[in-house]
Specification:
Structural class: mainly alpha
Number of helices: 3
Low-confidence stretches: none
Helix content: over 70%
Oligomer: single chain
Number of domains: 1
Shape: elongated
Mean pLDDT: 93
C-alpha cells in the first residue's frame, strides 16, 4: 500500500516515529492499528451502554408494576452479615 501524506502530517508521523525509534512505515501501521482498536472499543462500549440502559428500563418498569423487588440500600451490610453467619 502506498500512501501520500500532506507535508504536515508526514512531519508529525516522522516525529512520532523518531521519538519511538521506529521507521515511518512501522509508525503508520502502529498508529493505524491503535486507532482501529480504539474505534472498536468505542463501538463495544456504546453497545454495552445501550444494553445496560435497556435492561435498567426493563427493571424500572418491572418495579413500577410490582413484579420486581428493590434491593436494600445496605447491600454490602447484608453480604457482611451473611458471611458472618456462614462462618
Amino acid at each position: 500500500m502506498s500512501l501520500r501524506f500532506p507535508k504536515e502530517l508526514r512531519a508529525r508521523v516522522s516525529r512520532y516515529a523518531k521519538a519511538r525509534g521506529l521507521e515511518e512505515a512501522t509508525a503508520v501501521r502502529v498508529l493505524c492499528m491503535e486507532r482501529l482498536q480504539e474505534l472498536e472499543l468505542t463501538d463495544a462500549l456504546a453497545l454495552a451502554e445501550r444494553w445496560q440502559t435497556t435492561e435498567a428500563l426493563k427493571s424500572w418498569e418491572q418495579l413500577e408494576r410490582g413484579e420486581l423487588r428493590s434491593v436494600p440500600a445496605d447491600l454490602a451490610g447484608l453480604f457482611a452479615d451473611a458471611r458472618k453467619r456462614a462462618r
